[in-house]
Amino acid sequence: MKRLRKGDQVVVLSGKDKGRKGQILEIHADGTVVVEGVNVAKKHQRGNPNKNQQGGILEKTMPLQASKVALWSPSDGKASRVGFRTLPDGKKVRFFKSSNEQLDA
């Protein structure tokens, strides 16, 4: 079970986008995550009339290291670390270490 999942609300801890919040769109196997609206780069794209693609300068969301993001705790209003615990029925769930609040239903 991973600490971060697709759809989680996260906050960036370091870098040029420090403090920005967004939702995880993708998680890659190499330990990087793509966060909505964070780490946006401009890509110069050449047009291709055969594929009916228009050229220009496109904005593309680039991946960043998973260690640079932390889960956003809405109850605390700040970033929090994540732990795991096993419920009495045997189900493994995530919880916020700062508030002891269960994350998964």
Question: Descriptors for this entry?
Answer:
105 residues, mainly beta, SH3 type barrels, six-stranded antiparallel sheet, two-stranded antiparallel sheet
Give structural notes.
This protein has 105 residues and is mostly beta strands. It has a domain of 66 residues: SH3 type barrels (Roll), CATH 2.30.30.30. It is 0% helix and 45% strand. The chain has no helices and ten strands. The strands form three sheets. A six-stranded antiparallel β-sheet has the order 6-3-2-1-7-8, with no helix packed on it. Strands 4-5 form a two-stranded antiparallel sheet. Strand 7 and strand 8 form a beta hairpin. It is elongated and about 60 Å long. The two termini are 15 Å apart.
Strand content: 35-45%
Helical content (DSSP H or I, runs of 4+): under 10%
The low-pLDDT segments are none
Q: What is the CATH domain class of the domain at 9-74?
A: Mainly Beta
The name of the CATH architecture of the domain at 9-74 is: Roll
SSE arrangement, N to C: EEEEEEEEEE
Major beta-sheet overview: 6 strands, antiparallel
How far is the first residue's CA from the last residue's CA? 15 Å
What general outline do the C-alpha atoms trace? elongated
Which structural category fits the helices and strands?
mainly beta
Please give the count of helices: 0
CATH topology of the domain at 9-74: the name is SH3 type barrels
Care to count the β-strands? 10
Average pLDDT confidence is: 94
Strands side by side in the biggest sheet:
6-3-2-1-7-8
How many whole angstroms does the radius of gyration measure? Answer: 18 Å
